[in-house]
Amino acid sequence: MEDRLQVTPHFTDATCGGALLTNQEAPSSTSGLERHLNTIPTPRDQHHVNPAHYDVESIAVAFLFRTYSKSRRERHRLIAIMASSFPRSSIQLDYPLYAIDFDPEDATRVVVGGGGGAGRSGVGNKITVLETVSQQELRSAGEIALSRDEDSVMSLAVGPHRGKSTYLYAGVNSSPESIAKGKNEHLRALSVDPSKLRTSVGAKTPDTNITEASRTALFQDPEVDTYQRLLRIAGSTGVAATAMSKEPQLAIFDVAGAAVKLLSVLKIEKEAEDLDIVQTGENEFQIAYCYKYELWLVNVSGKEISEPRRVYVMMDDHGERPAFRALRYLSPNFLVAATNLPKRSGVVIQAFRLPKLEQAEARLCLNARIPRKISATAFAVANLSPPSSPFGALGETQFVIAVAGHDCSITLYTLEHTVGGSIELLSKLWHLHTLKEVHGNANITAMAFSRFVTPKNNLRQQYIKLASTSLQKTVVVNSIALKKHVEKAPRNKKGPPRAARYVTAVKSRGVSSRGLGITMAIFALLMALVAQAVLELSGQNTPILGVERIFPAAWHGSLRAPDHPPAAFLADEFLAKLGGRDIVKTVTGETLVVYEGDLPPATAGGDDQVPELKLDVHEPSVHGPGMTWEELGEEQKEAWKARLKEAGAWTQTMGEAVFKGILFGEIAGAVGRAVAG
């Protein structure tokens, strides 16, 4: 039992039989023990009971047990909430998986592809259609085995429906023999149709039939090692990109069922790390692709295709220059990307506002760094309130972003899109949840979100699905619970209430300042303790910390009376003792004079009375010419030293340096007494 009580008290109650209850001996059910412990009062209850009835050990254990039980129940409650918010289903196939995509018109259907490649490895090349029966069950609904002489499925996209048929498009290289002859029909179109077979009750027959419909070669002058690594489709237009090619290419094509029509092939400077396509208008599209530190755009309008245009270059931030790993369109105006920091030191999610003018550049408008040292291996984005038409205006909505790391985790973020007048804004790129060890220790190769459509009623719990694949032949579908959200205030006072939309049931959280606040509080506490210790050592404060018992006796009072204080400090102290602290602050640039004042009339004739020493700004008409310390004779110097000692303004340890820059007035009486001996 995982949550057993880690104590070994001796109970005399009959419930425990007078035996020692240890961790190894804990029963499978603690109801009897719990009833026994709940009868024992806690320390707060001791004034209500006779202490003789209970031993101290039992009371302490009962108190700890109740506290522990409450924290355990709270932990289990939170675990249950998180489990219900992110239910999981999985299935293991018989081939490694590289590509995945959801049916855009059926959120219960997901398609995966992969294989062992060309050769006699014994692992076939396949495409499998899976169905999510429930949040906890995933099953195969159909499968096609491809030729073992050809390459594995490296990219995959589900296109629009045509009647009862759904068309898939996959990147599969032809056989090495065919490629050697200069022919590589790498783009395959496949049709997924309902099964027409009638079977007896209980027989396991696929629900769908998958058949190959066409093969097309898009790339020009293919090389032996070149393959189609990237493939994306939006509406009736698709784009594919090469990998391992000396002359990287983008192929743009039309899809109309099984027919694939090539529109253009663009040669690009370097291989695209990732790409995406979005519909911007009637028969108008835009393609975005990235490599290393650059973001490029291509506009497609009918048969007119623009040249690639670089719109953003990643900035070097103190040696940490992120490199693009993946990107996805949020809308025709915004794009979000996952970027890797050098040496697997982290991942930064960056959102860009795309330019509307041909000469303008994209602008980074939002970013968030995943607080773990990982690198991104896959990326997916979902819109929880998509527009009704493919290129319709985007309203207020929440996006869910998934980043797969090389540590086998999937980190989920949310991003808010708001509209104010004609201005669209992105905000609150906040962490939602981290799914750990999604495929055990296997690296995640691909991810895809299902398309969520707001339901007409909300009688059932709503979910959006996130599917992922691994090289270890596993497919996992994590469902993310959603809830209805209604804005409290209308967009304007006289306007209608805002439409209800869905957001994640678990609330995402931004970067918390709690850690900084705690750090600052600890720092302030430490500084207060240091200040108190210094004051105690100098004898200026009542001992509270008792630092005099820790530090050697030679340190005690050393801060109050240093053996060799700075000369400037001694000069200020000397002046302050003569004329007060204020004069130290106001005499900068002035010449001061020390002189004897007049005796009070009542004591003018007393032999024991001496005039008071005064310090003032020197005025020759009032104080006379005055003399510097160097101009005084030895007898006058000794007389002034004695006089200043009597006044408590000077000590021998201060030295004569404090007299420099000060004029001295007449001290005839004192000189006479000093001379007389």
Spell out the key features of this protein.
single chain; alpha+beta; five-stranded antiparallel beta sheet; 9 helices; 34 strands; 17% helix; disordered N terminus; protein transport; Sec12-like; guanyl-nucleotide exchange factor activity
Would you write up a description of this structure?
This protein has 9 helices and 34 strands. It has 677 residues and is α+β, with helices and mostly antiparallel strands. Among the domains are: 1-85, no CATH class; 514-554, no CATH class; 567-676, no CATH class.
Q: What is the overall number of helices?
A: 9
Roughly what is the average pLDDT, rounded to an integer? Answer: 80
Described by the principal axes of the CA atoms, the overall outline is elongated
Strand content: 35-45%
Based on CA atoms alone, the radius of gyration comes out at 42 Å
Q: How far is the N terminus from the C terminus?
A: 98 Å
What is the total tally of β strands? 34
Pairing-aware structural class of the strands and helices? alpha+beta
Report helical residue fraction: 10-25%
What's the story with the biggest beta sheet? 5 strands, antiparallel
The low-confidence runs, each spanning 5 or more residues with pLDDT under 50, are 1-59, 670-677
